[in-house]
Give the backbone structure.
Amino acid sequence: MKQYYMAGNWKMHKTINESVQLAASLKLALAGSKTKVMIAPAFTALAAVADVIKGSSILLGAQNMGPEEQGAHTGEVSPLMLKDIGVSVVILGHSERRHSYAETDSLINRKLLLALKHDLQPILCVGETLAERESGQLEAIIKVQVVEGLKGVTPAQIDRLVIAYEPVWAIGTGKTATPEDADSVHAYIRKLVSGLYGAAAARALCIQYGGSVKPENTAELMAKPNIDGALVGGASLNVESFASIVNFGL
C-alpha cells in the first residue's frame, strides 16, 4: 500500500509563538497518522518548532537553503545550520524562488547536490506558468527543470529526494489542475526519471502535487496512480484543514 507524503509549506507566515502553537496542535491532531508529514515554518521559527515536534513523526523542513556550507554569504542559511537545529528536509526551486527571486536551474542544482551531501532530503519543485502551458511548452519546461535539477545526482542518491509538481498558475490562486492533468504531468516526470535512472527508480520516486491543494480535492488527486502526496501552502496554516488533507482517506 502506498505511503503518502504530505508537506506543509508555511511560507512567510506566522511569528515564532504562532508557529509553536500551530506545530503543537498538529502534533496532537496527527498523532498516530500513517501518512508521512513534514512542516516547513519560517527560518526564525525552525528551532522553536523543532523542540515542539520532538518525539513525534512529523519531519522538520526548511523553505530554502543557501548554496554554500559557510563563508561570506550575507543573508544565506547553510545546510550545516539547518541540520544543527533538527531540519531534515529542504524545499528547493519553489516557483516563488524561481520567479520572484530569479533562481536558475543551475543554482537550484547546486543547492540540491549540497543538500544531498549533508543528508538533507531535497524536495525539488518544478512547474510551468499558464503562458507556458497555453503555448505548448509544458513538457519542454518540465524536462529542463527536471534534467537540470538532477544533474550530478547519482543512481544511489535518487531515492533520497522528492519531486513536487506545482503548476505556477495554481499556486495560491484557488485554481487546481484537474486530477487528470496533474497525473499526466507526474507520469511525464516519471518517464524522464526512468530515462535517467531506470524504471525501478522512477516507480519508487515520490512525486507530490502542489497548487491550491485543500481538503475538498485531496482524495481525488491522491487517487491518481502517479500522485504520491502533496506540497501544501495556505491550507497547511490551519490545523483542521491540514489534518484533513493528511488523513484524507479516513
